[in-house]
Amino acid sequence: MTDATSPYEQLKADLGYLGLGRAAECFAVLADQAKAEGWGHVGYLARVVAEQASATTNRRLASRMRFAHFPFRRTIDEFDFDFQPSIDRKVVEDLATLRFIAEGRSLAFLGQPGCGKTHLAVALATRAIEAGYRGYFTTADDMVVALSRARTEGNWASKLRLYTSPSVLVIDDVGLLPMARDAAGTFFHVINARYEKATPTLITTNRGLPAWGELFGDDVVASAILDRILHKAVVLNIRGPSWRMREHQALAEAARRPQDTATAEQRTAAQQEGGRDK
To answer: Does domain 76-238 have CATH number 3.40.50.720?
Structure first.
């Protein structure tokens, strides 16, 4: 620090140099507050460090969320358990404690399209990311296509790590689109690598598990995939209607109401007119 540099300017420069941007922004304001309220030195320092820690936590969380590539943000509180009574709320709440990650338990969500499988998978993966874990979302089709392309382009190992390194991987819509025959082996590589590391995979599928042999075109490979997914897994079978169909029906009913109202008014007007004619 030169004679011309004030302690304020030097401290701000040093905090910026150390990458403590939030501390550099707030230390002067907190110093004034400390003086006005009579904080001690330790109390003042604790407030500055807390501001920086909070900013760092939020920045890292935002970075993990960007990496995860979720198609939307969902929470467990937003899930309508009354609409899907086949789902045991207590089971989901237990999963929300994230014990399944420490125990290496995969999750399988079964059900027809629109019943809330992806909602629950994304909500639980989001909870994991908020707790400091790394997560990633992909559809089954996108994953096998990306890995097949990587094999051709010579970067198979690095692309495989994208799916095997996160603490939590969501593979959505298994069975929604038909898979090429060689996709079964590609899919197995991901599942097997994660199984060996005891890192959970969250699967959503609208196909019954016995039909996976047909899905992958190879009963042996399909059995090996299921064996690794289902070992210690929690399976949630959602036997309920589609959210999207419910919303569609609600919109259709709302669209009919004005017409129904107008028709009723026309009938009333016609009856009144008929009464006058008599």
So the answer is: no
